Amino acid sequence: MPRIAALCSVLSFFYLSYFLPLHAPSGYARQYCVTITLIACLISYTTNRFGQSLLRKIEGRSFHARGQYTKDLSLLNGNRHDTRRRRQSEAPEYVANEPSKYAWVIIVVILSLRWEIFAWLSYMQRCSSPGVGSFVGLLLLTHHVITADIQKDDGDDDDMDDPWRSIFDELRDWLSTGRIRLIGGMVSSALFCTGTFLALNQVTRSSYICLSGSDMPVITVIWQIIALFLDAYVAVAAWRLLVWKDSMQGRIQTSILIAGVAATIIFTFGFLKAQSWTQYTHFQGMSLLTLLLDGAVLAVMLICSMIWTCDASPLLPVNVVTIITGVAASSSHLIHSGDWLHLSASDALLLLWIVIPAAIAFVHFLTVKIFVVVRQASFTALFAMLLLAASVFSVFRHAPIYNERHPINDLMWEASHKQSSWRMRATTSLTHETAVRFYKETHKGRIPPPGFREWFKFAAQSAVIDDFTQLDIDLEPFWGISPQELRRRVDLAIEQPSVAKVTIEKGKASWSVADANTATILTLDHLISQINNFSTHLPDMTIPINLDRMPRVLPEAAEIWAKVDVHQHLTADSVRWAHRNACLHRGQPLSQSYYESPAELCVDCEKRHSQQHLFGSHAWLQSLELCSQPDLLDLHDFFISERTHPTITQLLPIFSAAKTDMFSDILIPLTPPQQTSETQKTFRERSSDLFWRSGMNLSALPPKAFRGGHKSRLLHLLNEPAAHDMTTMITRTKQKEVQYRYEKMATSHASWLVPTNVKAWLTPKAGCQGLGCQFVPEAWTAEPADVTDHYATQHTLLLDETDGPSDLTLGALQADTVPFISTIFRTWYTGRIWPWVHFVPIDPRYQALHSTLAYFAGKGEVKPSDGPGQADGASIAREGSHWALKALDLKSQQIYLFRALLEWARLVSDDRDHSA
């Protein structure tokens, strides 16, 4: 039975370690953990109350009375031969002294304190060191060495009188003494704990910022060490308390009491810090089934770990988990070696050579008879074979090497071919009849809307005439709502703040809005002038226009695909989980996971649209699917900053300029014409710096946005990276043949190798009270730049604003410059531009920013030897400008808008089913 308990303890521990951070909603971790703890207590109580026959069987097989623990309990095994040599050759017993009457109260208080430290460290994880908990087992063993009662070994009289005894016999006997075994176990424990710590630290950090001033990284590490000692104390104190209980039921009752009271205190303390009872008890995003499952697993771990620990001591469970964690982490690094994250297999192999021999020595020094369910000899053989297999495997794992051609050159070639194929499909229809047939094929037999013939004449000679995929996606949810209900929702949408009413009546378009400013008037006048070019072909209709840059409509999942009438406003804190809930119901990849480690690079989040660490040529649209990238909810200002106007959770028809994944706004061209470059310099005559300027309102910037926002991270990465920050770059080898390879280097050196002019102007400069006002380095700041300054260099960086994509994107695409675009937003033209053909894509995590810019403008070891970068950059600038003037010009915007309004007119028409 102890073997089964040990196996269940290990499995349940690793299940909760992996899934609990994914299941616990962001901002509701306290409520989630308290809830599953109370569920676990309820399940444990039920088992204790109605499973007495099973408990008696367990008690009969493995229960130790307290006298055995004080007199005959070895470190890890209670059954020993009662001989002097046996006693002296085994490690001394771990004595469970009788606990005080109020020991459980002390344990509850420390557990509550430990939770608060855990919650604070979770918030400060960007400054913490992963894997510090690996040393709990070493602390327990150190405590045992200090407190163990070592009996003096007087030796065997017959052996002492043996004239043939040698110094080696004496050395063997000395090494077999209890104290030496403990010291050997302590040394081996120190080795595998250190190996596990190093393995857990071999993670790739994201660009999340640890502020050296306000975040106090040294204090964070000190709190981690304090938490380490608290964990060790709780393990020993709880073990002593439990082993002095006279029955298995008594032990379970004590465990339930400690866990239940601690959970109640933790919940109460969290409530006292909350702003309201409703806010604190609203478990947004929690699944009942997941709660029950996690609670049941926690109950299994609670009971089984109690059985296992009481059968041996706290040393064995803690050190077993540490060993398995170290071996698993090191093996994972070895398996993944050869990619850009794990360049060297030897590093992971070295960790295995530290952990495995130390683990084998540990079980032999401390006479561990059973390692979970495996006997000592089998454990030694299995780990030795694993080490041998890992050594052989590492010989065949190497980081990628590119011969002759830089990988970006290959990406450009692949993207060019794919874009050529798409352009052929997008301009298939040369006649109206062909366009109708193509429309039916791509719309499941649905015929085009009334007025399609006039639209086709209007769109003749257009660069894109058959591909309106984004429009189809935007309108699809509204086909599930009746025309009468749609018209009612239009009226409801117009009542929302910052929503204008555009009316088309008798072939003329006009607008009205409650509060108009200069920017609003400019946008609406431009839109009306566009519509009036074809308004005579449109029926009467009313269109709600979003005047806010930020998208507005984020329906609950049931509202997207069913006829549910829900109206609710969301604040910034709730938008993240409304977004996640919509992902869950649409069944998107990884949508059931929430990434709770923004300080660590989420590899699974970026690999779907990446080739190694570069942006792939195939996955521009995939990179905008945020359901598979939950880490971006912590790495972009859009999901962190407060909203100008609350997000709407009812499926209202609102037309907007941009949106992120899961928002249901209908995208149309709303941007007024932009000023482009007036420089007379040729592309090669301009500066090669990557240029970017933007404003940052420090007073309104939340602390989380200052640490994880996309602007702050960029400024920190390129202007003042931390000394320990590392970046992977593609460098040129020093061989005669042209070869490129990945190499890790200090981020400060990587930033020196690429020319950048990336700054922000800060507001307000006087009277600023925000966090950023105190800690923004001077290296980040500059004066505001003119619009044309962004087009005066060879490379311009187009970063999202807090509430939408950069206003300069269309202008940069039309200008003779290389746009470096980093965005999470979709626009009406998103599907028309191609990465590595019309622009250079940059992941919002910036993991490949240095390597990408180095190809086009790098120096030193990161500059391509044959110098194709500048020529390829000029090619992208030229091709992007040529395409933007053909497919993104005012005429193309009118064509898209005409098509969108025809489709919308049919949706709100009473005879739409007949016309479809």
UniProtKB/TrEMBL annotation:
Coiled-coil boundaries: none
Keywords: Membrane, Transmembrane, Transmembrane helix
Transmembrane segments: 29-47, 182-201, 221-243, 255-274, 286-308, 315-336, 348-372, 379-396
PANTHER family on file: KDEL LYS-ASP-GLU-LEU CONTAINING - RELATED, PROTEIN O-GLUCOSYLTRANSFERASE 1
Protein name according to UniProt: Glycosyl transferase CAP10 domain-containing protein
Source organism (scientific name): [Torrubiella] hemipterigena
